[in-house]
Write a structure and sequence with these properties.
Layout (H helix, E strand, L loop, with lengths): L11 H19 L2 H26 L39 E3 H4 L20 H8 L17 H12 L5 E6 L6 E6 L1 H6 L3 H26 L10 H13 L5 H9 L1 E5 L2 H24 L9 H5 L20 H7 L11 H18 L3 H10 L1 H11 L18 H18 L1 H4 L5 H6 L9 H8 L1
Antiparallel strand pairs: 1-3, 2-3, 2-4
Length: 454
């Protein structure tokens, strides 16, 4: 009797048939590139779907009960290794993250938390208003905060000194001193599985908060016929609108259209203060050589937070955020690798500011031109006959400055004040905290390059 082989159960013919069919299918797909892309997209879709199903299968629907697992002498409690130890984030409505300013107008509304909440350990708003006046005269008189832009500077000092990037300040676009409240999204960043997921959730909740504020203001001002507000909330909103000078329908409609949110920048400013320690001496020395005020060297606080690797969505690169057209004219016409060099950018920025100052009436318009363009500032200065940027902040038509242009000089002054009074504003700031927030490694050869360039 013939001995039976151990592999007698294996029949290679079906496998060969499947391989042959798959090879023919692959050849047909390869001959049509569009079909290839469609099949790749289908495969990626099913792969993502399977991953989502796998994650949902192992994500617990309720907190893990440790007492349900038997304990042993070697291990206090036994937990299956395949079960992840993450707790799903707590589901909250969008309005739970927001604390409105009109509620703070009523004494005892939040018990202990009266007023817009700020990050723990930050300076109070009253102290910031005192620092705006530059009590110790640490800035030149040319950059004094005038009465017309004081409220804008205070607003940006609060953004830069009170709230980190996990906060959103809801305010009016045309008058930033009109603040509707602050949204604290730090619970989302703590519970989300990744920063990208947290930012997505923050955007969704932020849009819902803006939509709700518009609806509430519209009803309180009589722009809509809805009746969803409680009597006490309606009276608080009417008092808030009266304080903002928007009880009439026209002004109220402008407020509703101008609602926007602004992310906090406290953590970015703290990181920028550390980044600037090595390069600020070179910037100041360069600007003194060109006869420029050293305060202008704080423009990178606003442009890039002194990040030499910064890239904007419109193509600006480097610490001074040079556009390709400007870098081609001021740095090098063809060698693009030199456009982001911080030393070359500093010298080019000094030459640009000298040119801008010769064409514009004062430093406020010159600094604004660095953001909005010298041509636009020249046209606006001649059209309205202004000697500084303050009158241009009131222009509301499309020919005027945008939101970034109207607030760039205020941000610049705020950055100067924050940097000059950093010991008073950040009393708990330590070196460890600064280095933990850096977005890149500080170049080790920079000090040598600075010494050789002097």
């Amino acid at each position: 009797m013939k001995k039976k082989s151990k592999l007698a159960w294996f029949n290679p013919k079906p496998l060969a048939r499947h391989v042959r069919r798959f090879t023919q299918f692959a050849r047909k797909v390869a001959s049509h590139p569009q079909t290839t892309l469609v099949w790749v997209a289908v495969l990626l879709f099913f792969a993502a779907l399977n991953w989502r199903l796998y994650r949902s299968q192992w994500t617990p629907s309720e907190p893990l009960d440790i007492s349900a697992f038997p304990a042993t002498s070697e291990q206090p409690f036994a937990i299956p290794y395949a079960l992840p130890m993450e707790v799903p984030p707590i589901q909250r409505s969008s309005w739970d993250f927001f604390k409105p300013e009109w509620t703070a107008m009523q004494p005892g509304a939040w018990d202990k938390d009266v007023g817009i909440p700020a990050e723990e350990g930050t300076v109070e708003e009253a102290a910031l208003r005192r620092l705006v006046q530059d009590p110790e005269h640490r800035l030149l008189g040319e950059f004094e905060v005038t009465r017309e832009i004081r409220d804008r500077v205070v607003f940006w000092m609060r953004v830069q000194a009170q709230y980190n990037s996990q906060f959103r300040i809801i305010h009016d676009r045309h008058n930033p001193s009109v603040i509707y409240g602050v949204a604290d999204f730090s619970p989302l960043f703590r519970s989300a599985e990744s920063k990208g997921r947290a930012l997505t959730l923050v955007w969704r909740h932020e849009q819902q908060i803006l939509k709700t504020i518009r609806a509430k203001l519209s009803e309180a001002a009589g722009l809509t016929r809805t009746r969803t507000l409680a009597p006490w909330e309606r009276s608080q909103l009417r008092a808030f609108l009266s304080k903002a000078g928007a009880l009439d329908a026209t002004r109220a409609a402008e407020l509703v259209r101008g609602i926007r949110s602004q992310s906090g920048q406290r953590d970015e400013i703290i990181a920028a203060l550390t980044r600037s320690e090595d390069i600020l001496p070179y910037i100041e020395a360069t600007f003194k050589t060109y006869g420029l005020p050293t305060e202008l060297g704080r423009i990178p606080f606003v442009e890039s937070s002194f990040n030499v690797r910064a890239h904007s969505k419109v193509g600006a690169v480097g610490m001074w955020q040079f556009m390709p057209v400007t870098a081609r004219q001021m740095i090098h016409p063809t060698r693009t690798e030199l456009w982001g060099d911080p030393l070359r950018q500093t010298r080019a920025a000094a030459r640009m500011l000298l040119i801008f100052r010769s064409l514009l009436p004062d430093w406020s318009t010159t600094v604004t031109a660095y953001n909005s363009g010298v041509g636009r500032l020249q046209r606006l200065s001649r059209r309205y006959g202004v000697k500084n940027v303050a009158p241009l902040l009131e222009v509301q038509d499309s020919s005027g400055l945008g939101f970034a242009g109207k607030n760039f000089y205020a941000q610049f002054l705020s950055a100067n004040l924050v940097e000059a009074y950093q010991k008073e504003i950040f009393p708990l700031k330590h070196r460890v905290e600064q280095h933990a927030m850096l977005a890149f490694d500080r170049p080790k050869s920079f000090v040598r390059r600075f010494q050789n360039s002097r």
